[in-house]
């Protein structure tokens, strides 16, 4: 799909700043996040990218990237931007990090070239993708759920607000979808998929989708019942991930 115009425009601005700081550094520049997963939210979504260079980044080039990013962040009204940096050769090799694995998988299935063209060859390893997802589940999300269950922690308190329940439930739903299908999906898409996959939690799934999209009516009168059901949904979805 063609990403929203404002996501492409933000990428173009960032590329212009990079080109000014380090001419010729970026060979190809691909969008790989919500902008290509049909879940772009103006004002809230980040621009996720995978940038391709000829050689590994030198210290001077990293400094140039930092300078470009600082200049970009000073511009008013621009979405946040973040991403992975790889060489052309890296695109055909196992990535060193879990984010790199997911970025390459997203590039392979859904990526959009703002500069350059789709790579002729992209690393593919279904087992490695599953391993990266499960590692993310066992590290980031397991610790996240543990903190969220405690009331007197910052995250436990944030679970009474709107952001944290949506982030948690939809975040683990994305993992479940990818483990079961091999595809990469947005948070909103994962929530809609999970409505059918986890019918016992339809109420909280509908609520976190409402919190993310702003569509529909509130499904809860109190914040504590919503938090309780969000935590229960996360636990069941994470258990399903481990069984898949």
Features:
244 residues, alpha+beta
Description:
- With 244 residues, the chain is of the alpha+beta class.
- The chain has two domains: 111 residues, Beta Polymerase, domain 2 (2-Layer Sandwich), CATH 3.30.460; 118 residues.
- The chain is 56% helix and 9% strand.
- It has a four-stranded mixed β-sheet, sandwiched between helices.
- The chain is globular and about 55 Å long.
- The chain starts with a helix and ends with a helix.
- The relative contact order is 0.11.
How far the N terminus sits from the C terminus, by CA atoms, comes to 29 Å
Strand order of the largest sheet: 3-2-1-4
Anisotropy-based shape: globular
- Poorly predicted runs: none
Q: What integer is the average pLDDT?
A: 96
How much helicity do the residues have? Answer: 55-70%
* Largest sheet report: 4 strands, mixed
The tally of strands reads 4
Note the run of SSEs as H and E: HEEHEHEHHHHHH
Strand pairing plus helix content: what structural class? alpha+beta
Total DSSP helices? 9
Give Rg in angstroms: 19 Å
What is the topology?
Layout: H1 5-21, E1 28-31, E2 47-53, H2 59-73, E3 81-87, H3 98-110, E4 112-115, H4 126-149, H5 154-158, H6 163-181, H7 187-197, H8 202-213, H9 223-243
Parallel strand pairs: 2-3
Antiparallel strand pairs: 1-2, 1-4
Helix pairs in contact: 1-2, 3-4, 4-6, 4-9, 6-7, 6-8, 6-9, 7-8, 8-9
Summarize the structure.
The chain has 244 residues and is α+β, with helices and mostly antiparallel strands. It has helices spanning 5-21, 59-73, 98-110, 126-149, 154-158, 163-181, 187-197, 202-213, 223-243; strands at 28-31, 47-53, 81-87, 112-115.
